[in-house]
Write a structure and sequence with these properties.
Blueprint: H1 2-42, E1 58-62, H2 67-78, E2 82-87, H3 90-103, E3 108-113, H4 119-131, E4 138-141, H5 159-182, E5 189-194, H6 217-242, E6 246-252, H7 266-279, H8 283-300, E7 307-309, E8 312-314, H9 323-336
Parallel strand pairs: 1-2, 1-4, 2-3, 4-5, 5-6, 6-7
Antiparallel strand pairs: 7-8
The chain binds NADP nicotinamide-adenine-dinucleotide phosphate (NAP).
NADP nicotinamide-adenine-dinucleotide phosphate binds next to helix 2.
Transmembrane segments: 15-38
Family: Belongs to the short-chain dehydrogenases/reductases (SDR) family.
Keywords: Membrane, Oxidoreductase, Transmembrane, Transmembrane helix
Length: 340
């Protein structure tokens, strides 16, 4: 009797708490976006420094069929890098390859199927890559999803966590030996994780990485971007400790006018597309920081790493430096992926 009286109240409390969690997460992200946009407007437009040719080098760029990734591929190919686009959409990927090859006749670009929402696809992609015995000098973990309705990857992970973070974790892990073999002292290989300033309001709860307690698409995106940063920083330290010629860094490309915003609530989407045309960075400007992070350390022979934004290395928020959180997330990820 008592139970049945309290049950509707419990349901109502849960619904209200979910509603407020979603609302708060959305407000936090939009306020952050507003602040970032203001800061971006006061910064000078980003220009890519002149980079020397990269002939003989090989790069993998995930999600390189459009947006920021496409511009990264285009520029690397122009510098002579052999670039492999890892992507889900074959038509889009092949169209990107065609466009780049039309623009630069000698470009060496190819598309290979990679779905980061499937661990099997990640394993298949790395297996085929390794069978070719190519070096790997640059890995750009760029592909990403934002504000998707609640959903799961093929392996049952929350979509933002699974695609933005865990899929890239596995990809990097499986390619690490090739990256190590391909780097040289003074000419390190690099792993660049394309994160976002949204990491600053992310939260990592090791006991609820799949957001089963509460789901907010806004929070899930921010959390996945923080996870990428923690991963990138921990990986860099491990590589430095082991003395390997590989650097790992994370990048915030800024607010860039791309299809990433397609899942915004329709009225917001309409306002965003207007504002974006005027005030957001172009994909090429977004790519500038990614390319600087990937190429500058190798060129300058410094030890690389860190967090890059606005075309240079910058400081970031304290949770990203928390070594316990970094190690905790690393260990849980290894368990979730069944590695070691
Ligand atoms: N745009 C911004 O303002 C902004 C700001 C901060 C950070 N970023 C980050 O920048 C990165 C690039 O985003 P963007 O702005 O260029 O967006 P975009 O144009 O939507 O590009 C995202 C790319 O990721 C690919 N992708 C999505 N799910 C995938 C999956 N399961 N497997 C393989 N590839 C997948 C997409 O391909 P398909 O969906 O066609 O498969 C697409 O090529 C993302 O990590 C994003 O979080 C962007």
């Amino acid at each position: 009797m008592g139970c049945s009286l309290w049950a509707p109240l419990d349901i109502l409390t849960t619904m209200l708490s979910n509603f407020f969690f979603c609302l708060l997460s959305a407000v936090k992200l939009y306020l952050l976006g507003f602040r970032v946009l203001l800061a971006q407007l006061s910064n000078k437009p980003l220009r890519l420094p002149v980079m020397p040719r990269q002939d003989g080098k090989v790069a993998i760029v995930t999600g390189g069929g459009r947006g920021i990734g496409y511009e990264v591929v285009r520029h690397l190919a122009r510098l002579g890098t052999h670039v492999i686009i890892g992507g889900r959409d074959e038509q889009e990927g092949l169209a990107a390859v065609r466009r780049i090859c039309e623009e630069h006749k000698e470009a060496k670009v190819e598309f290979r199927k990679l779905d980061l929402a499937s661990l099997q696809s990640v394993r298949q992609f790395t297996k085929s890559f390794k069978e070719r015995d190519l070096p790997l000098n640059i890995l750009i973990n760029n592909a990403g999803v934002m504000l998707l309705p609640e959903g799961r990857t093929d392996d049952g992970f929350e979509l933002h966590f699974g695609v933005n973070y865990l899929g890239h974790f596995l990809l990097t892990w499986l390619l690490l030996d090739t990256l190590k073999d391909s780097g040289k002292c003074g000419d390190n290989s690099s792993v660049v994780s394309v994160s976002s300033s949204a990491h600053g309001i992310g939260e990592i709860r090791l006991n609820d990485l799949n957001c089963r307690q509460h789901y907010s698409a806004h929070a899930a995106y921010c959390n996945s971007k923080l996870a990428q940063l923690l991963f990138s920083s921990h990986l860099h330290q491990e590589l430095q400790l082991g003395g390997f010629p590989v650097i790992s860094c994370a990048v915030d490309p800024g607010m860039v006018d791309t299809a990433l915003y397609h899942h915004l609530w329709t009225p917001l989407r309409m306002a965003q597309s207007l504002i974006a045309r005027l005030l957001f960075r172009t994909p090429a400007e977004g790519a500038a920081t990614v390319l600087s992070a990937a190429l500058s350390p190798a060129l300058n022979g410094d030890c690389g790493g860190g967090y890059w934004a606005n075309g240079r290395r910058e400081m970031t928020t304290p949770p990203s430096f928390n070594p316990q959180l970094q190690r905790g997330l690393w260990e849980v990820s290894i368990q979730l992926l069944g590695l070691q």
